[in-house]
Automatic annotation (TrEMBL):
Protein name: Membrane protein
Listed transmembrane segments: 12-42, 63-85, 91-111, 123-143, 155-177, 189-212, 218-241, 262-285
Keywords: Membrane, Transmembrane, Transmembrane helix
Keyword Cell membrane listed: no
Keyword check for Transmembrane: yes
Organism lineage: Bacteria, Pseudomonadati, Pseudomonadota, Gammaproteobacteria, Oceanospirillales
Coiled-coil blocks: none
Species in which this protein is naturally found: Marinomonas profundimaris
Signal peptide from the UniProt entry: none
């Protein structure tokens, strides 16, 4: 059964998003455990990467150009679009916070399942995660309208735990443990780390279902906005990197479309306003449909190139 889930992990991510929507009580009950799953997934993902090659990739200016596109550029674009569409202050804060959010740590596993360079996706993911603290501070300064002050001590503790904690742990493990023993362990567990990803769509979508039960029309608007954000990130990233080849373009697109909204919420919490969690829940359905669509696009573009 586990092997079946791993083999068909991409469509099952979407299935778990739908299940979370259909069973909101289970989704909301699981939500408090998501930070622990996030920490575990980040740690295992980093452990599975070749440290020296990853650091070399992170030293590339192209990676940091991508991080600037992923956060600063999209924050500006989404902010202008939200202003033109007359979003209220809470919704505008939420959509710009989503644009500031780094990529999912599940992205390398998804990219690997698609047959692309997972190390490139990992470097992109880490770069966007490292700029997240600055991006979120900018969002809160520019778009937070309520009289709420940022608890800097709590903020930095969360940064240390959820961002630098897994990175430091991974570095120490690689430094102190024999690479041969670690490699054997990682080979055994790496195919199953993607199963942890199922927890995120299942646990996050419940907040969107609550909004749907209270106000179906508002929930529909949030779903359309969430779908539009995913499409915007995916399409703009794809065409920005299209000249570098189909593989790089699709890697950048899927990395940009996958947003680690749980990490952003774990760091900033209620400062993101009442609209963020319902929007984050609505994002789960288009986000986890993206890998399936990407695999289809990969096949279509391959056919067109071969014909």
């Amino acid at each position: 059964m586990l092997l079946f889930l791993v083999r068909h992990s991409l469509p099952f991510m979407f299935v778990f998003a739908v299940l979370g929507f259909l069973i909101p009580s289970a989704s909301q009950a699981f939500f408090p455990f998501l930070p622990f799953v996030l920490f575990t997934l980040m740690t295992l993902t980093l452990l599975g990467m070749k440290q020296h090659e990853l650091i070399k990739r992170l030293g590339s200016k192209e990676i940091w150009f991508y991080a600037a596109l992923h956060s600063a550029a999209f924050m500006a674009i989404v902010g202008v679009l939200g202003w033109l569409l007359a979003f209220d202050s809470d919704l505008l804060l939420a959509v710009v916070a989503v644009a500031a959010t780094g990529s999912l740590f599940a992205t390398p596993a998804i990219v690997r399942a698609l047959g692309f360079d997972s190390l490139q996706a990992m470097a992109m993911t880490i770069a966007t995660t490292l700029v997240l603290p600055v991006s979120i501070c900018v969002v809160l300064i520019l778009y937070q309208t309520e009289d709420v002050t940022l608890d800097w001590i709590s903020y930095f503790i969360r940064l240390l735990v959820f961002i630098f904690g897994p990175m430091l742990f991974s570095f120490l493990v690689h430094y102190f443990l024999p690479e041969e023993s670690l490699s054997r362990f990682l080979v055994k567990i790496s195919p199953y780390t993607i199963l942890l990803v199922f927890a995120f769509p299942f646990g996050l979508v419940g907040s969107f279902r609550v909004l749907f039960d209270q106000n179906p029309m508002m929930a529909l608007n949030y779903f359309l906005i969430a779908t539009g954000l995913c499409a915007l990130f995916f399409i703009l990233s794809y065409f920005t990197y299209r000249k570098h080849g189909k593989a790089i373009a699709l890697t950048a697109a899927i990395t940009s479309g996958n947003r680690n909204v749980l990490l952003t919420y774990s760091i900033a919490g209620g400062l993101l306003g009442p609209a963020f969690l319902p929007l984050a829940g609505a994002l789960q359905i288009p986000t986890y449909l993206l890998p399936v669509l990407t695999r289809w696009l990969k096949k279509i573009t391959k056919i067109s190139l071969d014909s």
